[in-house]
Design a protein that fits this description.
Helix content is 62%, strand content 17%. It has 390 residues and is of the alpha+beta class. It has a 6-stranded antiparallel β-sheet. Helix 1 packs across helix 3, helix 3 packs parallel to helix 8 and helix 8 packs parallel to helix 10.
Length: 390
């Protein structure tokens, strides 16, 4: 009993280090994917560093929902690859300790990852998305330029759509402006100008777009008449207060809802339409991703023991391949489950059933000294490296 407790502590400690490293590494990779957007906000739109850091902080729970299961799998895989590579697994088997006796620390470790992921999906992710949404409102309110995109039709303002060919962010000059204004009752105004300039009021929620040397055409739907006139200057008032108020009145999206809010939302939908299935998928997703820590962790035990290579690069590729398979299965489940083609529970839980079943099967073969041919991955990695190192 004492020997088992020592081995359990030893194995658990072997997994903690790789877990922390992989957690930091994959979180960094996810954050790097946002660097282009962040650089654009800082350089071109003058958004403060503190605001950017807060946005990254609020976005972290969304990343961790996927990073934690991935880090759990990698930690278990690396730990057992090292034990197998150093022949410690053989030594343990020789002393009468089977593979099944090595599972308690793995199960405890996976349970910890499961609880962390569940906390992120149930509490962290809804909070983070709501906070990002609120922060985005503040950024747009203080800097409308963030919402303006060149050569893109913008309909952010109610009954107003505008198109800008070029934007000079330094002096807020707009080149080749097209605006369709339907705010007046039964009147559609079309404004075209070669140049314009954006001004903001002190409170930051009201903007004035001043256009120069353009043309305005107005069509009366009621009178079925139209007239056109040229102008030297023409001002258009853009009020963000109504936009922010209306956006907040829409309430939370499904991904911003807590479990209780999702249940209430599901009960309030009379017909089982697309919105019902999407909400139900989101409900099951909060739990299925958490359980992935178990299924992927158990799978990693067999992969680590059966692997003949102790190189971490091989383990990284091997783990990523199986996690990619899991993620693809999850994505397919989301796509087809939202259409109501089959019960949403199936779409969200089948990836766990497949990976869990594969993990149990490989674990049974490993425990009974039956080899599993997985070293073809090493061959693929070597060929890949050889091809691109030329």
């Amino acid at each position: 009993m004492k020997i088992n407790s020592i081995i359990n502590r030893y194995l658990f400690a072997e997994m903690v280090g790789p877990f922390v490293i992989n957690l930091m590494f994959f979180t960094f990779i996810f954050l790097m994917a946002e660097m282009l957007k962040i650089t654009d906000l800082i350089v071109n739109y003058g958004v403060g560093i503190f605001t950017i850091l807060m946005m990254l902080f609020y976005s972290t729970p969304y990343f961790l929902v996927y990073v934690i299961p991935m880090a759990v799998m990698m930690a278990v895989l690396f730990a057992f690859m090292r034990l197998s590579g150093d022949n410690e697994i053989i030594a343990l088997k020789t002393s009468g300790i089977s593979v099944y006796h090595l599972l308690p620390p793995v199960i405890l470790f996976c349970l910890t990852g499961c609880l962390l992921t569940a906390f992120m999906t149930v509490y962290g992710q809804p909070w983070g998305r709501s906070a990002v949404k609120e922060l985005t409102y503040k950024i747009v309110s203080s800097n409308l330029d963030v919402g303006l995109k060149e050569r893109t039709f913008n309909d952010s303002f109610k009954n107003v759509m505008f198109y800008v060919n070029e934007i000079d962010l330094k002096d807020r000059t707009l080149i080749d402006v097209f605006i369709e204004d339907k705010r007046a009752k039964n009147v559609v105004s079309t404004v075209v100008a070669p140049k314009g300039k954006l001004y903001s009021e002190p409170d930051g929620l009201v903007y004035h777009l001043r256009l120069y040397d353009g043309n305005i055409s107005q069509v009366s739907v009621e009178n079925k008449s139209a007239h056109s006139l040229n102008f030297q200057t023409y001002d258009i008032r853009l009020d963000l207060k109504k936009n922010v108020t209306n956006a907040k009145k829409k309430g939370k999206s499904r991904k911003e809802m807590s479990l209780s809010e999702l249940k209430t939302y599901l009960k309030a939908i009379p017909n089982k339409d697309d919105s019902y299935y999407r909400a139900l998928m989101e409900f099951h997703k909060k739990f299925s991703i958490s359980i992935a820590c178990f299924t992927l962790g158990i799978l990693a035990v067999s992969l680590g023991i059966q692997s003949r290579s102790s190189k971490k690069s091989y383990g990284l590729v091997l783990g990523l391949v199986f996690f990619l398979i899991y993620y693809l299965l999850l994505s397919f489940g989301l796509v087809f489950g939202e259409t109501g083609a089959y019960p949403p529970a199936i779409g969200m839980w089948v990836p766990n059933y497949i990976m869990g079943g594969l993990g149990i099967y490989l674990l049974f073969r490993t425990a009974n000294e039956r080899s599993v041919k997985i070293d073809f991955f090493a061959f693929v990695v070597k060929k890949f490296n050889a091809r691109f190192s030329r």
